[in-house]
Amino acid sequence: MIFFHKYVYKRFTGFIFILDITTNPEFNQTTVIEDYVSRLANIDIFIHLYRSKRVGLAHKLRQITFNPDRYIIAQGEQVNFFFIITSGQVVVSKKSSSDQEVVLKTLGQGDFFGALPMFFNIPSHVAVKARDPVTCMMMDRQSFQEMVAPELKSMERIAQA
Fold this sequence. Notes:
Elements: E1 3-4, H1 6-11, E2 17-19, H2 29-40, H3 51-60, E3 62-66, E4 71-73, E5 81-87, E6 90-95, E7 101-107, E8 112-113, H4 115-120, E9 127-130, E10 134-140, H5 141-147, H6 149-160
Antiparallel strand pairs: 1-2, 2-3, 3-10, 4-9, 5-8, 5-10, 6-7, 6-9
Helix pairs in contact: 2-3
């Protein structure tokens, strides 16, 4: 069973689905969580975390799929989710002063986006658009603030020392 996320429906015109592993009996939750934990272990900002912390993070993640050419984050938009790409690619772009879209980079499996605007509570300075069908692990703002932001603050303090 796949559940439809109302916020995403309002934001996008394509069909976007979220797989909620906590309420979906068709999936082995332990296997999915283990997959998420192993993926988190390979992402730069989570490498230093103890396994127990990554398990906690994995329980907060949800899977979401975006259709090609759909904006996941619009430039200037308040960001409410942190995304980790599990398959597909996204294009990160920014509008120039002449209102032309300038591609900054392409992100793929294992890359993440949405962390900085959520960490600093600022609108996104870039747009992120699905290049092809993209599947991501997604964490909401509250979970991010509780679980990830303290780790980023610790890393920031260490870097400044």
